[in-house]
Design brief:
The protein is mainly β. It contains one helix and seven strands.
């Protein structure tokens, strides 16, 4: 799959859900992802000379998305949206869940390239990733 840089400019959505069915803690749409290296926190990867990032099957694509403070729902604070309740728990159900949705025409093109002609036009341009116990760092 080949993604233009910047990756999914203005087409990234992030939703933080609280543990135990608490509901949405923070939500933002219209974001842009930054490709980062494998470390945490990641360092931004230089954009290739082609202006595109190539992701081959089996390779990881590590993205960083900045959640704006205004995305936090009333009753929550930005530093707390990613915290488990109780802190230090060993149960994933006590921790928030994050969904990241990336929309890009390259996703549809990649999926269509793996299908037969009858179904090639029916694929979505969205890629959804769900994270339990997300890696969060202050800005």
């Amino acid at each position: 799959m080949v993604l233009e840089a910047p990756v999914a400019e203005g087409r990234v959505t992030v939703d933080f859900y609280g543990p135990h069915g608490e509901g949405v803690r923070a939500s933002a749409r219209g974001l842009t992802a930054t490709v980062v290296d494998g470390g945490y926190p990641g360092e931004p990867v230089d954009v290739p000379a082609s202006g595109r990032f190539r992701v081959d099957p089996g390779e990881e694509l590590r993205l960083e998305v900045e959640l704006p403070a205004k995305a936090v729902c009333p009753g929550h604070r930005l530093p707390d949206v990613g915290k488990c309740v109780p802190e230090g728990t060993n149960d994933a159900a006590d921790c928030p869940m994050v969904t990241l949705t990336l929309s890009d025409p390259a996703i549809r093109a990649y999926r269509a390239g793996t299908a037969d002609d009858r179904t090639a036009g029916s694929f979505s341009d969205r890629l959804v990733a769900v994270f339990l116990e997300p890696e969060i760092s202050p800005a």
